[in-house]
Design brief:
Elements: E1 2-6, H1 18-23, H2 25-38, H3 42-48, H4 51-55, H5 57-74, E2 83-86, H6 90-97, H7 103-123, E3 127-132, H8 136-145, E4 151-158, E5 161-166, H9 168-180, E6 185-188, H10 201-212, E7 223-224, E8 231-232, H11 235-244, H12 252-261, E9 266-269, H13 275-283, E10 288-291
Parallel strand pairs: 1-2, 1-9, 9-10
Antiparallel strand pairs: 3-5, 3-6, 4-5, 7-8
Length: 294
Amino acid sequence: MKAYVFPGQGAQFVGMGKDLYEKSPKAKELFQKANTVLKFKITDLMFDGTDEDLRQTKVTQPAIFLHSVILAMTLGEDFKPDMVAGHSLGEFSALVANKTLTFEDGLRLVSKRAMAMQKACEVQVGTMAAILGLDDKEVENVCNTIKNEVVVPANYNSPGQLVISGSEAGIALACEKLLAAGAKRALPLKVGGAFHSPLMEPARIELAEAIAATKFSRGICPIYQNVTGQSVTDPEIIKTNLIAQLTSPVRWTQIMNNMIASGAKTIIEVGPGTVLQGLFKKADRNIVTMSATI
């Protein structure tokens, strides 16, 4: 069985999607449609911009979404997923690829999400850190001991790799405690806010209205969602989980385990980078991984 997976924020690079634009008339049409929907030429920033341009939240999230979705849509008959999943932002890419959302609706929601998250970051400063070499339960326990600051598990990426999120003071204190508890490393991440934490509540409320007003169809295959790690096909449940995603952890370890348990043998990463392939290889060395190409 084939599982198609879609990367999240951080996978962007200057020049992303340019080869698609030049090779495929269909891709060119979709990129031009995206410029119209967004009301600015995101293609200029993706193809010929700077790293600084791509780090703007209003650009980063739609850029990764467009690279992933347009690649999936140009695969044609080759795109035959038995299941899909996306890491954080990538969940929106997966929902367009499996036809739960239209291209235009998915892009509008991603743009709304990016703006709402940026606003939340300005209201409440926060950050994130990657904790390596410690059991998930131990990380959770340490986070629970910190009472006067916000610190929560945010991304369960693979066994021994968990990202925490929260206030700057909370993350600094947690890193200190986790290193003392035996973590190999506690790496602060260069991010603009405390994603997948309670500090994203204003963004969740804003995005919830947009998701509620958008039509979700029954997709061509199940999606394994971040909030539960479980397979979902019901459009209303997908909506509920997608709204909860902004303030809940990404359960990627659980998604990988559940996909493999459901029979996934080949993992195809659609979009920039190869991070998700690496995580699947850590989960099961026998899994076949590859990048989607046209």
